[in-house]
Amino acid sequence: MIVYGDYDYNGIHAKAGKSFFPFLKLGYEARALAMGGASVGMPNDLYGALSNPAALGFGNTMQALISYKPVMLDVRGGALGFAWPREAKGMWAVNIMYVSYGVFTDNLFDENGSTIDGTINPYSIAASVTWSKKIFESLSYGATVKGIYDRLSEGIGIDIPRASADGFAVDMGLQYRTKSSRLIYGLLVQNVGFIRSSYSEDIEKTTLPLSLIVGMSYVFKNFPSVRTAFDLEKSIDDYLQYKLGLELNIYKQMFFIRGGYVFSQSDLEEFFAMIKNGKFDQSYQKTNWSLFSAGAGVKADIKEVDVNLDLALNFRVDRLAPSFALTLLLGF
Q1: C-alpha to C-alpha distance for 195 and 20, rounded to whole angstroms
Q2: Sign (positive/negative) of CA torsion 219, 223, 224, 229?
Q3: Which residues, 6+ apart, have CB-to-CB distance to 308 below 8 Å?
Q4: pLDDT tier for residue 244 given thresholds of 50, 70 and 90
Q5: Using 50, 70 and 90 to split pLDDT, how confident is the model at 142?
Q6: Which of 74, 86, 118, 129 could form a disulfide with 160 if both were Cys (CB 3.0 to 4.6 A apart)?
Q7: Among residues 181, 195, 189, 204, which one has the least CA distance to residue 42?
Q8: What is the rounded CA–CA span in Å between residue 250 and residue 224?
Q9: In degrees to the nearest 10, what's the CA dihedral of 171, 172, 176, 180?
Q10: Beta bridge partners of 290
Q11: pTM, to two decimals
């Protein structure tokens, strides 16, 4: 394999598949998913514990969330979270993210190709604690500490031995808001940590999906019902990603519609090559399996409880069926 920087000769990222716990990059809340994942510079409250923990520092009420996300086939994911203010000590939150990969009972084989009996129910889970606090009225910082556990099998006698992996990671972020939060800048370093135990003895060749993300969102002065968002993300095992998002306030801060699109540096280079050559390379495949996204949100005050219900639809490449995500956020 010939490697040129981030690329091999097939256009595949040279480090693809070399990071552990990829479920940490999925995204679990519908508002951000509907906006193409652009979330680091968004006013996110408790959602920030799943995107940029610094956003949580601007909150001042107790909040709870539950999110559900079918990924594809039998793969299901979701998140639970709760946040509470500690006066001058900032905001605290606890969260759990999980992914279940289904149940496998048929066509199980060992390393020698022999049929084995048993059931495998693999899953991934990350439990986290987030703390965030405003440094100044317009600047907040925050950090999330995550314990990560990934299980392939629980262990069934000698046929299916116990197989699991675990590790620890930290997300650290900043968020700066100006002009009454019309303009917001965000910075996030995600998944800094280590793998404590792995399925492979060759653990030194794998790493966490470390990412650096910068982002911003802006509400136009002449169009106060429109918020645009843009994130620029570079992961250790992926191309530079461009994430574009749009949120429209349709009715009195009570009903919103959203849209988003994500593309990579490789996709961008292919686009310019198409313009130069006057034709599209039919063999080229978009590096991100997400094509574009859309969604809607409803916000209401019911008996002194702020209720936010968000829905996202993610449309896939290669004729894969669209997937959805549903998130309920409550403020007390």
Answers
A1: 8
A2: negative
A3: 297, 298, 299, 327, 328, 329, 330, 331
A4: very high
A5: very high
A6: 118
A7: 181
A8: 11
A9: 40
A10: 316
A11: 0.88
Place of tokens 């940490």: 24
Beta strands, E only, the chain: 3-4, 7-8, 63-72, 75-85, 91-100, 123-136, 139-153, 163-178, 183-197, 211-219, 226-235, 240-251, 255-264, 290-302, 305-316, 323-331
Measured CA to CA, the distance from residue 214 to residue 3 in angstroms comes to 27
Q: How far is CA 85 from CA 128, 132, 204, 257, in A?
A: 17, 10, 40, 29
Residues 2 and 12 sit within 8 Å (Cβ to Cβ): no
The architecture (CATH level 2) of 19-331 comes to: Beta Barrel (2.40)
Q: pLDDT tens across 88-120, in order?
A: 889 999 999 999 988 776 555 555 666 666 667
Confidence of residue 74 (pLDDT cuts 50, 70, 90): confident
Structural tokens at position 274: 């198409």
Name, in order, each residue with C-beta under 8 angstroms of 275's C-beta and a sequence gap of 6 or more: none
Among all chains, which residue has been given the structure tokens 């999110």? 67
Structural tokens at position 13? 């990222």
Q: At 88, is the secondary structure helix, strand, or coil?
A: helix
